[in-house]
Amino acid sequence: MTKSLRLLKKVIKAENLKKEYRNGEIVTKVLQEISFEIKQGEFVAIMGPSGSGKSTLMHILGFLDRATSGDYHFEGREITKLKDDELAFLRNEKVGFVFQSFNLLPRTTVLDNVKLPLTYSHSKKNVDEIAKKVLESVGLGHRLNYYTNQISGGEKQRVAIARALVNNPSVIFADEPTGNLDSKSGVQIMEILQDLNEQGNTIILVTHETYTSEHAKRIIKIRDGKIEDDYSVAKRRLARDGEVLK
């Protein structure tokens, strides 16, 4: 299947998603009527300041939380009414996560950290070989037996990316993946995510940084729980450059 055909397939469809928290009579509105679609092969950055609701949205899209109301379809399947065990299955089989704080097991080797998602999948065999191959793809074939407290921050995030990839997910969610890294390591991580997207992976990046977001191909801006903009990075850049030339 060509990349152009893959782009026609809808992976995510969100319609009027709302998220509220109640404390007695006090209602805190976190997300308000969020609607958009993401197709296979896209690289989308969800961007907004702290408190905008972007991480809450990622948690809903990645089956870590539930919307208060609205409809959410993943690969054509209605998600809103699924049971917790069904969500857990989808979370392990269909999505991969890369977090700002890495979320690695500190007293465990790099290889064993990456193998972890495979232990919950009954369909996977040769888990060592699969994990080694993915680690090699992110340049860590020489770190297999190192413990995660023996490697640098940039290497830790590459381990996290390998772990996210190991189940061959439909979508990779990256939540502020460069937030704990120096600028050089941050650039390397974003280049890896761009390469993965060029290979056909669907990536959703959550960030508050303009520079980081512009590594994506599309940006959805959120403020106060609402979408305030949704645009192609390339088209916006062309329009901006055109204005400068005038």
CATH class: Alpha Beta
Q: Distance between termini?
A: 42 Å
Q: Name the poorly predicted regions.
A: 1-7
Sheet/helix structural class: alpha/beta
Q: Can you say what the CATH homologous superfamily is? A: P-loop containing nucleotide triphosphate hydrolases
| Helix proportion | 25-40%
**Dominant shape:** globular
Strand count, sense and closure of the main sheet? 6 strands, mixed
* CATH fold annotation: Rossmann fold
Record the strand order, biggest sheet.
Answer: 6-7-8-3-9-10
Number of domains: 1
Task: Give the name of the CATH architecture.
Answer: 3-Layer(aba) Sandwich
Total E-strand runs: 10
Total helical segments: 9
- Over the alpha carbons, how many angstroms does the gyration radius reach? 18 Å
- The percentage of residues in β strands lies in 25-35%
SSE pattern, N- to C-terminal: HEEEHEEHEHHHEHEHEEH
Q: Determine the mean pLDDT.
A: 91
Tell me what you see in this structure.
The chain has 246 residues and is α/β, with parallel strands linked by helices. It has one domain (40-63, 82-245): 3-Layer(aba) Sandwich (Rossmann fold), CATH 3.40.50. Helix content is 35%, strand content 28%. The chain contains nine helices and ten strands. Strand 1 and strand 2 form a beta hairpin. The chain starts with a helix and ends with a helix.
